[in-house]
Design a protein that fits this description.
With 366 residues, the chain is mainly alpha-helical. The protein is built from 13 helices and 2 strands, in the order αααααααααβαααβα. It has one domain. α3 packs across α8. Keywords: Coiled coil.
């Protein structure tokens, strides 16, 4: 498209947060952010490789320790300690390892064991289906109504532009259930998108459903049969701990994702926004459609560095350990271009997304 100095960046129906920028300014923004990404990617090396290997070693150590404690003792302290270790291990595997490995952030290492094409995570959702729903659909159409199925995951009303239906009155309740069972919602999520779009045949959809069934079975066999049996007389002890760890992991992942996408001030875009979208327009949409969670290194690690959701959406394939250093530079870019940089504490972001879920359960909400 032809760039002009006086053409508004977004249609009138889009949020006003970035409407003051012209196409020429957005082209400059896009070039600047492209250069930043290239700078970081060119600097990756052995220190980064050591980081992800240390995190994987930590995660596996926590899992082994947690399962060992649960199998070796039946005291109350052992249940709580083992469950805590196992919960953290599962959260690390899903967030800082699985999510980021499957984004291709570590493909540059050429390590077949830590590669987006080979990693299968500890989650009910098959990795190939998750990569399509998340990497392809969500990151391409971030916060675009009618295109990004992550907007409320098709069951929640999280924007006033969504038509209200009576079922939404119950969304504060079923959002809690969704949080506890989040991995299972993710597992059927991609098939729902493909069924809705008609992009796959009935036979392909049945094959996808069979893949989900096999992954469900493997996960259930591992956590609810094999490990409890290995616990011997502590079988029930191990079973309940595995169930608790999976539920707590699901709630944590759900909370982090909602904090990064659905706090009260994050923008949502009409579908016409992406017509003839340039690289600069795409970057602008990522900036306006995401929010960070402020905190320290431990919070960043446990969230898979999705506490830097803005930076992750700008650069999905940049390794997660680099996002903290990028964040101040992105904030400075936003200041120069007059754009909001939405970041708040964890309690505030949790309050923001739950306030939206509660408010938009009722008609209106504008």
């Amino acid at each position: 498209m032809t760039l002009t100095a006086d053409k508004p960046a977004l249609p009138r129906t889009a949020p006003a947060s970035g409407a003051h920028l012209t196409d020429a300014e957005l082209e400059k923004l896009g070039n600047e952010l492209d250069a930043l990404r290239q700078e970081v990617m060119a600097d990756l090396g052995e220190a980064d490789a050591r980081y992800i290997r240390r995190v994987i070693a930590l995660q596996r150590g926590l899992e082994v320790a947690g399962r060992g404690i649960l199998m070796g003792a039946s005291r109350r302290w052992a249940w709580w300690t083992g469950t805590a270790f196992l919960t953290v291990a599962k959260a690390l595997e899903n967030m800082e390892i699985g999510h980021n490995v499957m984004h291709g952030q570590w493909d540059w290492m050429r390590d077949p064991k830590i590669h987006s094409t080979t990693w299968e995570w500890d989650n009910a959702c098959p990795s190939d289906q998750w990569k399509h729903a998340h990497n392809v659909l969500h990151h391409t159409y971030t916060n675009v109504l009618g295109k990004d199925r992550d907007l409320g995951y098709t069951i929640l009303r999280i924007n006033p532009a969504q038509d209200w239906r009576p079922v939404y009155l119950a969304q504060p309740v079923y959002n809690l259930a969704f949080a506890a069972l989040f991995e299972f919602g993710n597992a059927v999520y991609d098939l729902g998108a493909q069924l809705e779009s008609g992009e796959k045949t009935e036979a392909e959809l049945k094959a996808g459903l069979a893949d989900i069934g096999r992954k469900f079975a493997r996960q259930a066999l591992k956590d609810y049969v094999a490990f409890p049996l290995m616990g011997g007389r502590n079988a029930r002890h191990v079973l309940t701990a595995n169930l608790a760890a999976n539920i707590l992991r699901n709630i944590w992942v759900h909370t982090v994702i909602f904090c990064g996408h659905f706090p009260g001030d994050v923008d949502v875009f009409p579908e016409e926004t992406i017509e003839a979208e340039t690289r600069g327009h795409w970057y602008l949409r990522q900036l306006l459609g995401s929010a960070d969670i402020s905190g320290g290194p431990l919070l960043h690690l446990l969230t898979g560095n999705l506490s830097h959701q803005i930076e992750h959406h700008l650069f999905p394939d940049v390794p997660s350990n680099r996002l903290a250093a990028i964040a101040p530079r992105i904030r400075e870019v936003c200041d120069r271009y007059g754009l909001p940089y939405r970041s708040a504490s964890f309690p505030r972001q949790v309050t923001g997304h739950w306030s939206k879920v509660l408010r938009l359960a009722f008609p209106g909400g504008r």
